[in-house]
Amino acid sequence: MKGKLGIVLLVAAVALSGVAWYVADRREQATEADFAAKPLFPGLPKRVNEVTAIEVESLKGKFRIELAGENWVMPAKDGYRVKADILRKNVLGIAGLESIEPRTDKPELYDRIQVSDPAAYKPADEAAKGDPGPIKVKLLDAKGVALADLVVGKVRTREIGSKPAELHVRLVNEAKSWLARGRVDLPADPVAWLDKDMVKIERARVASATITHSDGDVLELVRTNGENGTAKDDFKPAQALPEGKKLSSQYDANSAPGALAFISFDDVARAAAHDFSKANRTEIVTLDGIRATVRSLPAADKKAWITLQLAYDPALVKEDKDNAALLKPEAAQKQVEEANSRMNGWAYLVSEYAARDLLRRLPELLEDEKPKEDKKD
C-alpha cells in the first residue's frame, strides 16, 4: 500500500462515520437501561491517515507494524512487508466501531468475554481454550500518541456480507467493557499479517524440473507430452528407470514441476541469516522462458528454508500454440521482475509438503513392477 493509508481509505473512513449500520431486532439483555449506539472513537474516522504504527498483543506475543517510507512493514520480521488489505480493514474497522450495549466493569469477569489484558488472561472454560483470546491493539500517530487503545475480545456474531460483526471490547484506560459492532478481524499470529504473495508458476507452463541434492543426487523430470496415455502436462523421470521398477504415482511425479503453483510460507527472515552455500537446488524451467531457481535447507518438522530467484531467457521459449497457460514474452518478463523485487534477499520457511515436493528423489517415485503371469494352456 502506497503512502500512508491513501485517499481511498480516507474516503471510506468518512463514509464509515456518516452511515449507520443495521441494528439487530434482538439484543442480549443489557446490564443497564436502553443504550443508544455511539462511536467508540468519535474523531478517529477523520484521522486514519495519521496512523503510522500499530501495536498488537495477544496470547501469541507482541508485534508492531510501522509505516516505512511508502510501505507498511513488520520490524519483528526484519521489516517484511504487511498485506495492505488486512491493515486497511482493521484500521478502518477500529475507527468505525460502535458500542451497542454496556458490559461488565468488574475485572474478575473480564475473562468471560475475553477483554482481560492478554498477559493476565485465563480461559473461562474448555470451549474458550480454542479461541484466540483477548487481542490488545493500539493505533499510533507519528509522535507515538495513541489514537486508539483497546482490547478486542470474544466475538458474539461474525461479519456476514453487509452485516458487521458483534464483539466484546474494552478501552484500555477504562473499566467498562462493551458489546460493539464493526468490521474488525485481527489476526493474533504476526505471520498472518504478512503479504504472502510469492510467485505462481502453473505446472501447465513447466518444461522440466531438475532437483540437485547437496549430496550430488540428481532427479530430472520432463514432460511426457501425452505419451502412453498420460496427460500432456504430466511428467516422468528423464533418466532410465531401474529394471523391475515403475512410477508408483503420476501425482508424485508431477509434484516437483508443480511445486510453485501455490507456494506460500510459514515464516520469513533475511536470507543472510542462513547459510545456503551447501543448499539443495531445484530448477524449474518453463515453456515461456522463465528459469526459477530454488535453494532449500532442511528445517525442523520436515519443513525447509528456501530462497527463490527467477530469470527470463528467450532461448528457453518453446512454442505450444494449444497451451493457453503460457505467458507472452512481455508478461513473462514482468512476472520475473515483480517476483524478484518481492523475494530477493529473503528466505522463506515452507511447509513439510512444499519441502517434500521441492526435494524429491527418484526412489521415492518408484515401486516394483508386478511380475507377469504365465499364460495357462
Topology:
Blueprint: H1 6-18, E1 38-39, E2 53-58, E3 61-68, E4 71-74, E5 80-81, H2 84-95, E6 98-102, H3 110-113, E7 135-140, E8 146-157, E9 165-171, E10 177-182, E11 206-212, E12 218-223, E13 235-237, E14 245-247, H4 250-255, E15 267-270, E16 280-286, E17 290-298, E18 304-312, H5 329-343, E19 346-350, H6 352-358, E20 366-368
Antiparallel strand pairs: 1-6, 2-3, 2-7, 3-4, 4-5, 6-10, 7-8, 8-9, 9-10, 11-12, 11-16, 12-13, 14-20, 15-19, 16-17, 17-18, 18-19
Give me a quick take on this structure.
The chain is 15% helix and 30% strand. The chain is an alpha+beta fold. It has two domains: 180 residues, no CATH class; 166 residues, no CATH class.
What does this molecule look like?
About 6% of the residues have low confidence. The chain has two domains: 180 residues, no CATH class; 166 residues, no CATH class. The strands form three sheets. The chain has a ten-stranded antiparallel β-sheet with strand order 1-6-10-9-8-7-2-3-4-5. An eight-stranded antiparallel β-sheet has the order 13-12-11-16-17-18-19-15. 33% of the residues are buried. It contains six helices and 20 strands. The chain is of the alpha+beta class and 377 residues long. A hairpin with a 7-residue loop joins strand 8 and strand 9. The protein is elongated and about 80 Å long.
